[in-house]
Amino acid sequence: MLGGGGGMGGGAAGQFPLEQWFYEMPVCTRWWTTATVATSILVQCHIITPFQLFYSFRAVFVKSQYWRIVTPFIYFGPLNLDLLFHVFFLQRYSRLLEESSGRSPAHFSWLLLYASTTLLLLSPLLSMPFLGSGLSSTLVYIWSRRNPETRLSFLGLLVFTAPYLPWVLMAFSLVLHGTIPKDEICGVIVGHVWYFFSDVYPPLHNGQRPLDPPIWWRRLFERRPSNADTDTDTTEIRNEIAAAAAPEVR
What we know:
Strand content: under 5%
Oligomer: single chain
Number of strands: 2
Distance between the termini: 62 Å
Shape: globular
Order of helices and strands: HHHHHHEEHHHH
C-alpha cells in the first residue's frame, strides 16, 4: 500500500530526505500534516490537553472558543503507532487528491471546507468530539472511487482493489479499538455525496457541477495575470496576426 517512489538522490541539493518529502507535499496537505504532528507533540508535552481541542457547539458559540472549529481535525491522539498510522493515510491520500485537483489549491481547499463543515454539523448529533478520522476517511473514499482499478495490499496480507479500501480500514479500526468507527462511517457518507455530485451527477445533467467552488473562492487562490504577462500575451497575438497576414515567400 505504500506504493513505489523515486530514489532519494533526485532531491534538491542540501536537503535531507525528510525535508525533501515535506516540501514536496502540496500546500494544504503539508500544513494539515504539520498541524497534526505538532498538536500531538504539544499534548504529549502537557502544554495543552485534549479537553481544549474537541468540538463543542456550546464552547464555540456560547463561550467564543472559536479555535475548536479547527482543532478537532488536527488531533488524532497522543504520540504512538496509531497516530503514525493516521498520519500516513492522511498525508498519502490527501496528497494524491490535492495533486490531482490542479495547480491551484482552490478546488481541494473547497473540498476540505465542505467536508469539515458537514462533519461539524453532524458532530453534535452523533457525539463525535474529534473529527480528523472522519475527514481523512472522506478523502480516502473519494480517492478510492476515482481509482477503481488500482490494486492495494494491506499489511502485505490482503490484496484488493481501491474501492474496498475505506471498508478495510473501518474493519481494521473495529478490530483495533473494539468500537464501531462512526466517525469514519460519517466520513464515507460525506465523501460519497461529494463524489456523486462531482463525478456522477455532471455527465447526466449537462456538465453541471453543484459542488464546484464559486468564483469568489477561486479568486482567493488563483493568481491574477500581471501587466507583464498581459503585455507578453498581447505581443504574441499581434505577431501571430502579422505572420498570418504576411504574403508567402517562395
